[in-house]
Amino acid sequence: MTSATVATPRGGHLDPRILYTGSRLLVLILLCVILAIASPVFFTATNALNVLRVASLLVILAIGETVVILTAGIDLSIGSVLTFSSVIAALAIKAGVPLPLALAAGLAVGAALGFLNGLMVAIVKLPAFIATYGMMWVAAGFAVVLLKGQVIYGFEDDFRFLGVGNLLGMPMPIIVMVLLWVPSYLLLRHTTFGRSLYAVGANQEAARLSGIKKDRTLILAYTLSGLLSAAAGLVYVARLNASEAGIGANMLLPAIAAVVIGGTSLFGGEGGIVGTLIGALIMTIVQNGMNLLGIESVWQGVVLGSLIVVAVLVDQWARKALASESN
Amino acid sequence: MSAVTPQPANRRERGPLVVWNHVPPVAWVVLLLIAFFGVTAPGFFTAGNFLNIMLQGSVLLIMSVAATLVILTEGIDLSLGSVLTLAGVTAVLTLQAGLSVPAAVLAGVLTGVACGAATGFLITAGKLPPFIATLGMMGIAAGLALVLTRQGAIYSDVPAFVFLGGGSLGVIPMPTVIAVLVFVFGWIVLYQTDFGRYIISIGGNEMGTRLSGVNTAWWKFLTYVVAGALAALGGVIMAARLRAADPIVGNGWEFDAIAAAILGGTSFEKGNGTLGGTVLGVLLISVLRNGLNVVGVGAMWQPALIGLVIIAAIVFDVMLKQRGVIQ
Q1: In which band, very low, low, confident or very high, does the pLDDT at B204 lie, cut at 50, 70 and 90?
Q2: Are A260 and A254 in contact (CB under 8 A)?
Q3: Residue B59: is its pLDDT beyond 50?
Q4: Which residue of chain A is at minimal alpha-carbon distance from B308?
Q5: Mean pLDDT score, A52-70
């Protein structure tokens, strides 16, 4: 609405945007070096694989959040949608529904909740943070109702494989993450839908006037976010071997932090999931590092909140600097 | 950006309907709810229960006045609930340190002032979108509450403190007395001072207000400070009522407060809205909560049902407004 439009830097020998993405990579490497010095166990293969496995959940969630933020929106409901759809899948599995069908049900419910978010944002024209914030409380509330305050646990091995299994020595969550990340990347970069996401985010009115189906793009973006949240939820429940109403509550802040640290602009139209991947890795390493250094987990909310705020501040400052440099 | 739907000019000039059109729809919903619960639940229409509704609605009213002021500036404050929690914690800690009750109240309120000043600064000087600055603060304040309480409730039953939450003036509970004072304070600020005029005019047209020489950044900053202070006051009362500060007591309160403001007719786009409408919104939510209790709907169902009703009401409200059916 108000943000100064960021001039797209063109020409010159080195695209400043590459420099900008590169700087995140540098932060990531720097973090690894610091932690390797501070804690001897950090640079072991086990810990590296552990970091990647933990990060994969965050990456899956954050891809969906990135897609929505690219449209200049926000999805505050991802944690609750993760919970609700995984509860549906867990209940279905326990009721004896065949595994593929149960998983499909979970994914479908996630997509449906995302679709509702999209309708509220695109058609009713509620601000995204109101619509998805409402969804956050409603979905969390119904998850409690469905579970009747209990925990479902103890799943069959075929389902658990999704969370704890290995394929060719690679943990399944990482494989699922890659299988979702690559098509998402292609979708964003090489399809009309991907380009219209960026266009809608950069300037809704201009996008509409140039013939982009704005409403459909927005609805699809939120649906995709719901679907990916559900996918993350399935992997998470398979790993925990339990489904309970609180699992998604602490997922929102890390996911948004990953997106923002990854350099996707909250004003829409700028960024992508390469940055988000780096951002999610940085987030996971920060959390992993806090554990290794023995910082109490109660501090996490404080750290996450501050990280988000600082990351957006730095991002805006850098964008302004880049814009003035390229002019 | 804002969808301006032209209002049918003659919609308001239909004889007797003129009067009805000026009654906010939320008032009808409140009356309907009262009638419904009055018929279905024998215990609803008792003086004791009405006092109960007043008591339960008091903290929500204080929070909702805060939410209304912020939304009028086209902002949002997602940290209100966490600030409520944190302020209760600092107040009880002050009492536990052996200081007086006024000192504890002051400590609580100053906590809110500090949180509000931090978000206000980030929004005005740092140019962060309000939802992200306050989301960050939500994480920070909630995290600090966990850190300070070591993740458990902390207690105090100093009589003068407990009086603030559990005492009464005549038959009126103290929280209600304080809530009415807050409402009067909010009304005077909003309608009788320059501050209030600037809040409304910033929401209507921020650029225009700034260009006419108003220091909009300062007044917006001040709005978040006041909102933080009010949320903190709510937290102190809550702690006094429970004789304890619980590190998750405020979770979700901001949703109810924002919902009450929006249901009461405060629009997040044009700086429209009245504090009187917000009172109706608070009544709607409080009657609904209380009625569900009295009817005997389980505590487990309540968050889901109330969230659903709130979101449905907001969607209907916005859609009817867009179609010019109601004002």
Answers
A1: confident
A2: no
A3: yes
A4: A138
A5: 95
The answer to whether the CB of A119 falls within 8 A of the CB of A136 is no
pLDDT, residue B5, reads 47
Structural domains in chain B? 58-251 (1.10.3470.10)
Classified as helix, coil or strand, A171 is: strand
Does residue A302 belong to the interface with chain B, where contact is any CB pair within 8 Å?
Answer: yes
Which tokens go with A261? 């640290």
- Chain B residue numbers touching A300 (CB-CB < 8 A): 143
As a whole number of angstroms, the distance between CA A8 and CA A11 comes to 10
The answer, for A316 touching chain B at a CB cutoff of 8 Å, is: yes
Instruction: State the best of B80, B85, B132 to mutate against chain A, taking most chain A CBs within 10 Å.
Output: B132
Contact A325, A71 (CB under 8 A): no
Give the Cβ contact number of residue A73 at 10 Å: 26
Instruction: Give me the torsion for CA of B310, B311, B312, B316, rounded to 10°.
Output: 100
Cβ contact A62:A259 at 8 Å: yes
| Amino acid, single-letter form, for residue B2 | S
Q: How many CA atoms lie within 13 A of B301 on its CB side?
A: 11
H helices then E strands: how many in chain A? 13, 4
- Contacts of A159-163 with C-beta under 8 Å, sequence gap 24+, read A159/A93, A159/A99, A159/A102, A159/A238, A160/A238, A160/A239, A160/A241, A161/A238, A162/A234, A162/A235, A162/A238, A162/A239, A163/A235, A163/A236, A163/A237, A163/A238, A163/A239, A163/A240, A163/A241
Query: Is A96 in contact with A212 (CB distance < 8 Å)?
Result: no
Record: contact A305-B206, CB cut-off 8 A: no
Q: Whole-number mean pLDDT of chain B?
A: 88
Q: Can you give the pLDDT at residue A6?
A: 43
For residue A175, count CB atoms less than 10 angstroms from its CB and return exposed for 0-12, middle for 13-18, buried for 19 or more.
Answer: middle
What pLDDT sits at residue A8?
44
pLDDT in tens, B78-106: 999 999 999 999 999 999 999 999 999 99
ipTM reported for the complex, 2 dp: 0.84
Q: Report which of A280, A252, A215 is spatially closest to residue A81, judged by C-alpha positions.
A: A252
Structural domains of chain A, ranges and CATH numbers in brackets: 16-322 (1.10.3470)
